[in-house]
Amino acid sequence: MSKKIIIFDTTLRDGEQSPGCSMNLKEKLEMAKQLERLRVNIIEAGFPAASPGDFASVQEIAKTIKECSVAGLARALKSDIDQAWEAVKYSQAPRIHTFLATSDIHMQYKLKMEPQQVKETAVEMVAYAKKYCSDIEFSAEDATRSDPYFLAEIFEEVIRAGATTINIPDTVGYTTPDEFYELIMTIRKNTPSIDKVNISVHCHNDLGLAVANTLAAGKAGAVQFECTVNGIGERAGNAALEELVMILDTRKDIYNFTTDIKTNEIMRSSSLLTRITGVKVQPNKAIVGANAFAHESGIHQHGVLSNKKTYEIMTFESIGLTKNTMVLGKHSGRHAFEEKVKQLGYTLPKDELDKAFARFKNIADKKKEVYDRDIEAIISKESVQVPKTYTLKRFVINSGNTITSTALVMMKRDDREIEEVAVGDGPVDAAFKAIEKIVTQKLKLEDYQIQSVTEGEDALGDALVKISNEAGRVYVGRGLSTDVIEASIHAFINAVNKMIYEESM
Ligand code: KIV
Ligand code: ZN
Asked: Of 54, 102, 178, 181, which one has the fewest beta carbons inside 10 Å?
């Protein structure tokens, strides 16, 4: 009989707290809905006590998501636990996840607590959380550098206090598969009540072993794997969800574990996260990298043409990749567009579909052939939108290699049209400076990327702009157009609108 693995996704908590990966409420909600379609079992939606924004997002996710349990993280503090409960209580299956460090180095230097005090606090806080919620996870932070017998003592007592899952994190990504296997076996042997609860693991990737360590823990009896889409997370990240799931799927013969994950939603989850955060995955990243299914060498291509299995251990369809087929053009109507959207696996509410169709028509006017990837780019642009405080009315650029670039940009805010002119180091820089003048704020350009969505001369340009305000908060904007300067301007305005939206919350 195969064993079911519970997939605990922490993209919106551990992932979101890593550099460059912060998301606003709408983006987190959109990502949570995609995680629900992916069928993760538990979404760790955030750390409610960390900020009012985090609290609001966890609460909104708890109210919206129906098919997954929603967890909120809390330090072992009454005030954190109160807030975590206030945020997750709307979920159909709420979970409070509380944690306390157990390694000597953390207890001595970070917590400044004696081991006995740590044990008592853990027990007291689990019991406190249990008054609110039946589903309680307790994590022993830095478990892999903790004394295994001390861990077993704490786990035994927190189980008696009401914990239903005990999590063994490799917080600093220090352990190795064999060592982690032994640690879990030792904990199991020395914790009499261990069989009453689920054992969970949460591995960081500092030595590149997060996935391998998680799998070793599975062999030692862990039934919950904590992971993130694209492996995002603190420092080198967390175990990558897509890798764990596809290993279990591809190597059933070794692991004999199953998950509820709909593997054909993997690619969409990965792409959505990339679009929201602007953090790309490396091309050779396992499963979701751009080259993961590409065969460059002639020998490989020949083999694959004769029989795919010569060089392919998984099919690209299994992760939801579609061939980049040419589909629509400027004569395609609404019905064909809707059919295509459905075929690509998206269900959009009517207002989003209307906007996406309008954009499609606009693009199809300028671009002869509209490919699946173009349509996906259009849809993902429409799906995570904030109120459009500023919109672009028009722009004029004067640029060349013998003159200083000048940009005139006119934007609309409410009923006002505002126009500014600026010079810059190239047309894009000039346009960005003109926008900055219009919004009358000092903004720093943190990152700017432009890439084509598909090949060809009339390919859509997909621009990404990351700006930060004076408080250092970073906002990511996206823009799409067949004209790269227009795409860049749209991306900058999108980032500004996100900033205004967040500041208004
Ligand atoms: O890495 C870690 O230890 C954590 C805990 C809060 C589970 O993220
Ligand atoms: Zn972590």
From this structure: 178
Number of domains in the chain: 3
Q: DSSP letter at 14?
A: I
* Max Cα–Cα distance, the chain, nearest Å: 79
Question: What are the residues facing 479 on neighbouring strands?
Answer: 463
What are 112-167's pLDDT values in tens digits?
999 999 999 999 999 999 999 999 999 999 999 999 999 999 999 999 999 999 99
- Cα–Cα distance, 354 to 367 (Å, whole number): 20
CATH number at residue 60: 3.20.20.70
From 9, 54, 80, 99, mutation site for ligand 1 pocket: most ligand atoms within 8 A of C-beta: 99
* 297 within a domain of the structure (yes/no): no
| Bridge partners (DSSP) listed for residue 226 | 8, 202
Q: Which ligand lies nearest the alpha carbon of 99?
A: 1
Q: Whose CA is nearest to atom 1 of ligand 1?
A: 171
Give the global pTM.
0.89
Residue 22 in domain = yes
Report how far residue 421's alpha carbon sits from residue 126's, in angstroms, rounded to the nearest whole number: 60
CATH number assigned to the domain comprising residue 423: 3.30.160.270
